[in-house]
Amino acid sequence: MEKMIAKELLKISAVFLRPEQPFTWASGIKSPIYCDNRLILTAPSAREKVEAGLAHLVGTHFPECECLMGTSTAGIAHAAIAATLMNLPMGYVRSGAKDHGRANRIEGKLEPGTKVVVIEDLISTGGSCIEVVEALREAGADALGIVSIFTYGMKRGVERIAAANTVNYSLSNLDALVEVAVEEGYIAPEWKDRILAFRDNPSDESWIK
User: Is the per-residue pLDDT at 209 higher than 60?
Assistant: First the structure.
């Protein structure tokens, strides 16, 4: 599944590799990879595979799940579609409480003790999905874990998720992606190790040279 999803993401340019002309993140870090998983929603064939994959991961790793909660905003549509496939309730968690109306942060009915899985599109350092897990726990939900479309597998993200006493399962990851990228001719073989070196130490730009 990891390589199949990676192939779909590359085909629709939801994940774009440009090691010879790095992207610059908001933090200033130069990166050989750019992810825009929102493009999945406009590609029916890829979308079908991704949503079926998310439902499969939830059912496999969290069979007791009673509700899916998407991260705002990228995880909302994926949580809704996967929940429909699984015939489960669905909601989402805002990055902050609304400043009007009922001032909700969690949208959708959520009873205390409900067993919930968080749906995320992309995990880098893990900060946003951990905030969602913590918000759900504060609301009394039993947050079982996270299911995501893609993860860089960065050390900081892995450690932060473990420290938050939760777990993530991703449909695909950077290791699978670079394997497929070399096989399909998206990048030259010599770039494989350089891209993984970036993943292991994003602040070290020696991979560019």
Answer: yes
Residue closest to 69 by CA, chosen among 97, 96, 87, 89: 89
Residue 112's φ and ψ, nearest 5 degrees, are -55, 135
User: Checking phi first, is residue 185 left (phi over 0); if not, alpha (psi -120 to 50) or beta?
Assistant: left
pLDDT digits (tens, 9 = 90+) for 161-180: 999 999 999 999 999 999 99
**Consecutive H or E run containing 188:** none
- Which of 178, 192, 198 is CA-nearest to residue 7? 178
**Separation of alpha carbons 91 and 110, rounded Å:** 8
92-147 tens-digit pLDDT: 998 755 444 344 789 999 999 999 999 999 998 888 999 999 999 999 999 999 99
